[in-house]
Amino acid sequence: MSDSIANLQADWNRQYRQYADMYQSGQLSFISNLLPQTAVQFTVYQTLEILHKRLGNDVLRKALNPAETVESPVSQYADGSWLKRSNMVGVNVRTIGSFWNLINYTLTLPASHDSIHLLPIWEPGVVGSLYGMVSWQINPEFFDVSLASFVPALDSVEKQLKVVTNLIHALGRTIGMDVIPHTDRFSEMVLSCPSLFEWVQRGVKQGKPAELVDHSSYVYRYVEEAIWQFLKFHGAADNTQLTFTKDTFFSTDVTLLSDDQRSRILFGYPNDHGGRLNRRLALIRHLVAQGFETLPMTMAPPYRGIHIDPNDFVLDDFGQTWYQYAFDKPEAMSRVFGPLARYRFYESKDTNQHWELDFDRPNLPAWSYICRKVADCQRMYNFDFMRGDMAHVQMRPGGVPAEIDDYYDPLRAIKKYVQANGVPHYAFFAETFLAPPDTMGYGNEADHLEAIEADSTLGDLQSLVVGSKEFNRQFADYYTYLKTRRFAPNFTVMTADKDDPRFDEFYQAGNLFRYFTALFLTDMPSYVGLGFEVRNRHEHRGANEEYTKLYVFRIEDDRQPDKVTHGQFEWGQNADQFVSILRMRQFAERIWLDIAGRQTTWIIPPGDTKKYIVWTQTNQPGIDSPTYVFAASTTGKLPKKIAAITGEEVVFEEDGCRVYKI
User: Fold this and answer.
1) Please, what's the b/e burial string for 610-619 (b: 16 or more CB within 10 A of its CB; e: otherwise)?
2) Rounded to whole angstroms, how far apart are CA atoms 49 and 368?
3) What is the mean pLDDT of residues 178-206?
4) Cβ contact 526:88 at 8 Å
5) Secondary structure element (H or E) that encloses residue 192, with its range
């Protein structure tokens, strides 16, 4: 622990009652001077005592009952437009250990951070990747033992998640989940519903294991037969009598066999994690021995046309060989994600002889399945929005079509399905980077975002050095999109996927400019990842445990030194940054009601060569005139006098960030 952090901790220990009282009495919307690393160490009793005094007995009692549902603060909206001005915080639950600790971390966040995005919450598969979901079960590692001991009724991770979403809503915030249009390559979904995915066969029997011998549209039928034979030989995992036919078992008609019934028959009961895993591994070995595997997911044009690279493979702990795939004709951003399989959303042309998809023939059961499963989760936990993973995927070589039908994009379909089933306020936060045309997907990405009806999008400001020509240009472009397009780009400060050693250079300077602008540019949404407030500058590479990105995986193999983590996430020791951001938050508390949601009037707008920006709020009918002017420097220094501002009183200043009162 650094001396500065130790001093902050000592101050908290001396004055915690005063700081907590200001929150509990409603004077502040967050607990001031509370370091996040201190907050996540609160006992369950401490947290409940604070919540009881803040919320009152009746609200807290309701929120702690998983059978009850606390209404969302945005439930009155008729659509997801509220997300276009949200200041979102992204949380990788692995970094804080459990869902319950999300409440402790939220105590450190002011009300201006009004949305919480949870990175994937599902049970993970290969290398423990959160994005390689292996089932629709909630990740059991996010269960809090202390909470269950203190409140015995909360004896499952599902109940604890429901209570946490209740409390987030009771605290006036929205909460969203990741929606992932792919799974682990040998997930329970893949094995129980082969027709929803693309399968290939390697040449095992022909003695050519590193060659594809069949990538036709019909391979999934052979896989169904192989799985059925496995099931007949080993019997049902839940002892169900197999009195039905293979076609009934694999039918996508849920009136014949529900998703849950099929899963129990094939793998066993949901809470038997070890039994389900062993059963799945046995089935995988059975299929791989015959050369069957799912086609791995790809990113960016040309998407299709891949082959096995015979020189690139790994051996797993069971002695099985896993070959990597490569593009036949790769382009700049082409990537193959070996551990993942995308749903087969479209049929292929000519039985996939030339790797072409027929976008006029959607594979309807795949669309129905993923829409239904996401809606079930939304309903169970009362999520307010989804972060659509890899929303930039646009596979049509001709770009965005002139007419957008119901089967243009699965994320769009999911949003509309949930809204149509009683949740009109359900919003869509898209993971796209506003890349140039034909880079991350075919065609224009902004057109694609409008076509998929995204409410807001991540953007790529977090991947650029503050003050660089490219950063300034993109910032200006994003604000133009905000005013001219139907989606809202985020002023993204940092994401959990960019808190990575490879991106240290982005956060060695300009951090206060990022945070100040994201907070006070009130007509533009923003996104910041957990831990940014104390993140070390990393002028030299830090330990792996200091980066949230490396907790997206569960790699404990020392043969991968750049990714392996040992033990818990280590919070940053950047006390100076914490104090500066704290001062911004405290000032925001005093003026937030005057500025929240207000339109911006630029005095000095962002541009290629601008070293600082200046803005105020637009005069709007029925609203008082603007009261404040905001100035922020990309270099960390503002001139003592700004020509465009005369006579106003400086009411806040912090390292190149300044607020004037008009």
Assistant:
1) bebbbbbbee
2) 44
3) 95
4) yes
5) helix 188-192
Nearest to 115 by CA among 473, 490, 443, 621: 490
Q: In this structure, what are the phi and psi dihedrals at residue 352, rounded to the nearest 5 degrees?
A: 70, 25
pTM: 0.97
Q: Collapsing DSSP states into helix, strand and coil, what is residue 271? A: coil
Task: Report in angstroms the alpha-carbon separations of 593 from 87, 111, 113, 439, 529.
Answer: 15, 11, 14, 41, 25
Q: Phi and psi at residue 326, in whole multiples of 5°? A: -140, 155
Residues 6+ apart with CB under 8 A from 520: 588, 595, 630, 659
Residue-wise over 299-323: b if at least 16 C-beta within 10 A, else e?
A: bbbbbbebebeeeeeeeeeeeeeeb
Which pLDDT score is estimated for 121?
98
Q: How far apart are CA 57 and CA 35, in angstroms?
A: 27
pLDDT tens digits, residue range 609-623?
889 999 999 887 777
Residue 407, CB half-sphere, CA atoms under 13 Å: how many?
15
Token duo for residue 654? 């912090």
How far is residue 584's CA from residue 576's CA, in Å, rounded to a whole number? 13
Return all residues near 81 (Cβ < 8 A) that are at least 6 apart. 427, 455
Q: Omega of the bond prior to 437 within 30 degrees of 0, cis?
A: no
Q: Are 572 and 534 in contact (CB under 8 A)?
A: yes
Dist. CA 80–CA 383, nearest whole Å: 12
Q: What whole-number distance in Å separates Cα of residue 319 and Cα of residue 454?
A: 44
Task: Tell me the per-residue pLDDT of 452-496, one tens digit each, with 9 for 90 and over.
Answer: 999 999 999 999 999 999 999 999 999 999 999 999 999 999 998
Which of 239, 260, 262, 237 is CA-nearest to residue 249? 262
**How much of the chain, in percent, has pLDDT values that exceed 70?**
100
User: Tokens 């990575």 correspond to what residue?
Assistant: 500
The span from the CA of 346 to the CA of 414, in Å, is: 16
